[in-house]
Amino acid sequence: MRWDNMTKFLVVVVAIIASFAFLAKPLALSVKQGLDLQGGTHVVLQAKDTDVAKVDDDALNRSVQIIERRVNELGLTEPVIQREGKDRIIVELPGVKDPEQAIAMLGRTALLEFKDMSGKTVLTGKDLKDSKASAGQNGQPLVTLEFNSEGAEKFATLTAVNVGKQIAILLDGKVLTAPVVNEAITGGHAQITGSKTMQEAEHLAILLRSGSLPVKLEVVENRTVGPTLGQDSKDRSVKAFGIGLALVFLFMLLYYRVSGLVADIVLLLYTLLVLAIMKALNATLTLPGMAGIILSIGMAVDANVLIFERFKEEIAAGKTLRAAMDAGFSRAFVTIFDSNITTVIAAAVLFYLGTGPVKGFAVTLALGVLVSMFTAITVTRFILKSLIGSYWITNPAFYGAHAPETKEEVAK
Fold this sequence. Notes:
This protein is an alpha+beta fold. The chain folds into three domains: about 1-35 and about 225-410, Up-down Bundle (Multidrug efflux transporter AcrB transmembrane fold); about 40-110 and about 215-220, Alpha-Beta Plaits (2-Layer Sandwich); about 110-210, Gyrase A, domain 2, CATH 3.30.1360.200. It is built from 13 helices and 13 strands. It has helices spanning about 1-30, 35-40, 55-75, 100-105, 150-160, 200-210, 225-255, 260-280, 285-300, 300-315, 320-355, 355-390, 405-410; strands at about 30-35, 40-50, 80-85, 90-95, 110-115, 120-125, 130-135, 140-145, 170, 175, 190, 215-225, 285. Strand 5 and strand 6 (about 120-125) form a beta hairpin. The radius of gyration is 32 Å and the shape is elongated.
């Protein structure tokens, strides 16, 4: 039994240390990074009332969905699009190479219209099924349109009654092209010429595919975070993380000795679990999120402190190491549960009422608290139980405790 417990202790400790050594860096690098860590563009769009459309919740929600489709089709890495208040949309484009061109797409209403000679609108973007950029016979960039069944009928009728006449194709009220109809077109396809480059044609095709914005959006803030600034922020955060971890390690080791060493080892597992869960949840790590993780490091040992203090009290009361450990965990559980649940509730309120950066802080804080509860109540207890059961270290002083020497001291 003694050697079984020693084997369990050594296997778990070595597994945690080895896992941290080999997996911590790859996991940290695999977690998505926000704008403030890798650089990019931060844009705030303001919705405006027009004679045609008024700003309301439905219009703004639809605008967010359309902008998400546009940004995703640009191929940008991990964009963030979210509402702010009643009439604003925040767009963060990490790692964007051409911010001006990307921003130009965000606020475009992309209202496509086909008009006859009298100026009557016969088709709109709602009649589109798909749009793609391609090269013409002379290598000229163009956008190929495919209409849905209803749009194909409208387009066939439009071209049939306008043979020999011009029809105008407009985007956001501006004429893109005004070709002369040579014959009725019944295939449900059309082409838009006039794009200067293939990239311009591809962006136009994206705008048309994603649909038209229901309200007018204006750029009221455009802030660029350079890669150098993002890297500097990342380096500072990593440094703060390392310093915080080292100080916590040192305190636990000096004050609680062997128990503190066990807590430090479990803290390595805690760090791995937090990173792995963030990776699994596809969460984006930002500077406030890093602050939440750093704060949760201190909170991660809070449960261990409560347990170890109870552990010391039980030893001072005359109990054996095993009995003191069991009593310390069982009696400290309610306090640990209450304190952590109140923190999770506070984090939930921050997440519900806050904006992007505050939500990132709330998520990492709540995640850290929940993981710390799990590691303290289960993993720390298992390792300590195995260590005490091995009878390798039996002197209470090595656990930061003081055994009573007299009956009077026990009575106290």
